[in-house]
From TrEMBL:
Name recorded for this polypeptide: Mg-dependent DNase
PANTHER family, per database record: DEOXYRIBONUCLEASE TATDN1, TATD FAMILY DEOXYRIBONUCLEASE
Basic and acidic residues compositional bias, start-end: 276-288
Gene Ontology cellular-component annotations: cytosol
UniProt xrefs under CDD domains: TatD_DNAse
Taxonomy, superkingdom: Eukaryota
Biological process per Gene Ontology, one example term: apoptotic DNA fragmentation
Source organism (scientific name): Gonapodya prolifera (strain JEL478)
Entry's transmembrane regions: none
Length: 294
């Protein structure tokens, strides 16, 4: 018998808990009080038993590890996001060794569980050009090889180059998760063809259109992993997936004065308020959280 949704334990395999939004800071300006502890409690109340905090730079990886150490449900990754690969330029070997130090320190505590976020992003080349991304993406394979950790992967508008690099370095890793997948059926087939150790991660951004949903149905269940990518990638009323949430949230529903979890509610059962009307204990409208995993 299948486990009832309300009792199912979930793991958010990708959440950006280092983002200042979770401390009440938006675009370098404080909008409300730090409610990080409430974010974690809402996740627990929604049966999210584990969360993996993604590292996007050396500093962020260090920060993610420190946060992970603060709570038994938290884990982290170590790597450099493709849009920030310029950080390698001054001294690539030293930067890689520093990442390796963080990874090994975190593994000793049972907290670091993957190498990444790493890969290619051709949608935002104004942050980092293709040649720099392609040069330093492979540096992460050394980290995976020396630690035995799987890869937490980013692929945006770069599938051909991404697949080629993954295949060229296939002997340096055993597993990898291509997170936040939004591609076509052809791209899905190309990614899965890399090898048996490749998994696909989906979040709200993966479920925007009917085409997205058609492709989602074709991901083998033993290759499918779930994430929020919070504070980004929430499921919105304009998304094709919103109609499948059970039950849908009535558009005319008024928030009550208390924030109590409700069973099987599409909006996770927590009140959302604009950050300008912040109340401690309520979610912030437009800021995704791990509690939305259900």
């Amino acid at each position: 018998m299948a486990t009832p949704l309300a009792a199912m334990k979930l793991v958010d395999i990708g959440v950006n808990l280092t983002d200042p939004m979770f401390r009440g800071v938006y675009h370098n300006k404080r909008a409300h009080a730090d409610d990080f502890a409430h974010v974690l409690q809402r996740a627990r109340d929604s049966n999210v038993a584990g969360m993996i905090i993604t590292g996007g730079t050396l500093h962020e990886s260090q920060e993610a590890l420190e946060i992970a150490k603060s709570d038994r449900s938290l884990y982290s990754t170590v790597g450099c996001h493709p849009t920030r690969c310029k950080e390698f330029l001054s001294d690539p070997d030293r930067y890689t060794n520093k990442l390796l130090e963080v990874a090994r320190a975190g593994m000793a505590d049972g907290k670091v569980v993957a190498v990444g976020e790493c890969g290619l992003d051709y949608d935002r080349l104004h942050f980092c050009p293709k040649d720099v991304q392609k040069r330093f993406f492979p540096y992460h394979f050394r980290l995976s090889r020396e630690t035995g950790l799987p890869l937490f992967l980013h692929n945006r508008a770069s599938t051909a180059d991404f697949v080629q690099i993954m295949q060229e370095h296939s002997s340096s890793y055993t597993k990898g998760i291509v997170h936040s997948f939004t591609g076509s059926q052809e791209e899905l087939d190309q990614l899965l063809a890399i090898g048996d150790g490749i998994y696909i991660g989906v979040n709200g951004c993966s479920l925007k259109t009917e085409e997205n949903l058609d492709v989602l149905k074709r991901i083998p269940l033993d290759k499918l992993l779930l994430e929020t990518d919070a504070p980004w990638c929430e499921i919105r009323p304009t998304h094709a997936s919103f109609a499948y949430l059970s039950p849908p949230v009535p558009k005319d529903k008024k928030p009550s004065s208390k924030s109590k979890p409700m069973t099987d509610n599409a909006d996770s059962g927590f009140i959302r308020r604009p950050k300008e009307k912040f109340q401690m204990g309520d979610m912030v409208k437009g800021r995704n959280e791990p509690c939305t995993m259900r």
